[in-house]
Specification:
By secondary structure, the protein is of the alpha/beta class. The protein is built from 13 helices and 14 strands. The N and C termini lie far apart (53 Å).
Length: 350
């Protein structure tokens, strides 16, 4: 099994990916920005690598010293991926050069792998048709322009795909993720509702479109797709004789849920009885813009090529009880948990 280095291993998605890889039997290394974060990784059986989002030298040394097979960027670092990618290309070139210097006739059996975390919103606002992961993005022939805040991603995706002579690559495009502490769904939707409950506010305003339908997937399911990409990379990635010759780009979606229904369900769960208004998010707010962009994607290639078998298929609405409770618990607010318990009891009597 390849050793894996995860950039963003202490973040929302990265921690789920790193833990899933450990459970699958991989030797996993992860970036830690502090001693506290390093201890968190070590407790999860992940080897910490001290570093930062801006200094990648330690990462590159780890690639060489530990003979890392695959590097995963799960940091959601926006433009920060570009310098990381350049460092990984340099490490990939060095690996190929070292192999050839040892035997002038040798052909390396395994290039360095790189998995980039993109997002579903590169497809743009496409509410009336299903988009596939092989559909072009960021070009005139695309079905729609990439959503606000992610316009840089299509070009970066193309640069990554163009590096297949040096790296084995894969690009994964997760939907709007939920579960655990609910990520941006929690911060931008559940959080304001919960705050409204605690403050007793008679009304609140959400930066989202009530009528928008968004692609969703549980973070644990998304993490298993990364495991599949790591373990199948030698089959589908690159351009060598062992490759299937398929485009290594995969949409990851299990649900297609309405923002208004998500909010109504959350309000009922938390016991909020006030008025909820909606307003458009700022265009430069990438995360909030997701709540105004409808994308319904086909993820069948992830299932057939990566062996992806998502199991959390009830959606955020269907599992609001457990996900809302987990989000609240992550905020360490016992008084809020008591409010939820009271609201749940009240709902049972209705």
């Amino acid at each position: 099994m390849p050793r894996v280095l995860v950039f963003g291993a202490t973040g929302y998605l990265g921690s789920a990916v790193a833990s899933a890889l450990v459970r699958a039997g991989h030797e996993v290394y992860g970036l830690a920005r502090s001693e506290d974060k390093a201890r968190e990784l070590a407790v999860q059986e992940i080897f910490p690598v001290m570093g930062s989002d801006e200094e990648f030298d330690g990462f590159i040394e780890t690639i060489k010293e530990k003979n890392i097979g695959v590097v995963i960027d799960a940091s959601n670092a926006m433009w920060g991926t570009s310098p990381l990618f350049r460092y990984v290309i340099a490490a990939g070139c060095e690996r190929l050069g070292a192999a050839l210097s040892e035997d002038k006739h040798a052909v390396p059996t395994q290039k360095l792998g790189f998995i980039y975390t993109s997002c579903m919103w590169v497809h743009g606002h496409t509410p009336y048709e299903t988009v596939g992961d092989t559909d072009p993005v960021g070009v005139p022939s695309s079905k729609a322009a990439a959503a606000a805040g992610v316009g840089f991603r299509p070009a970066l995706e193309r640069d990554i795909l163009a590096a297949r002579s040096i790296l084995d690559v894969a690009i994964l495009r997760p939907a709007l993720m939920y579960g655990r502490n609910c990520s941006i769904l929690g911060n931008l939707l559940l959080g304001p509702i919960l705050a409204g409950v605690m403050s007793g506010s008679p009304s609140l305003r959400l930066l989202a479109s009530r009528d928008c339908n968004v692609p969703t997937a549980h973070v644990d399911d998304v993490a298993t797709a990364f495991v599949g990409a790591v373990e199948h990379m030698h089959v589908f990635a690159g351009n060598g004789s062992n490759s299937l010759g398929v485009l290594p780009v995969f949409n990851l979606q299990t649900g297609y849920e309405n923002i208004g229904i998500i909010v109504d369900t959350a309000a009922r769960f938390f016991g909020y009885g006030g008025t909820i208004e909606y307003g458009p998010p700022a265009e430069e707010d990438y995360h909030a813009a997701a709540f105004g962009t409808s994308v319904n994607a086909d993820s069948s290639r992830a299932r057939s090529i990566l062996g992806w078998r998502p199991s959390r298929l009830g959606g955020l609405v269907g599992g609001m009880k457990q996900y809302g409770y987990a989000f609240t618990a992550a905020g360490e607010a016992p008084s809020v948990l008591r409010v939820i318990a009271a609201a749940t009891a009240a709902n049972k009597t209705k």
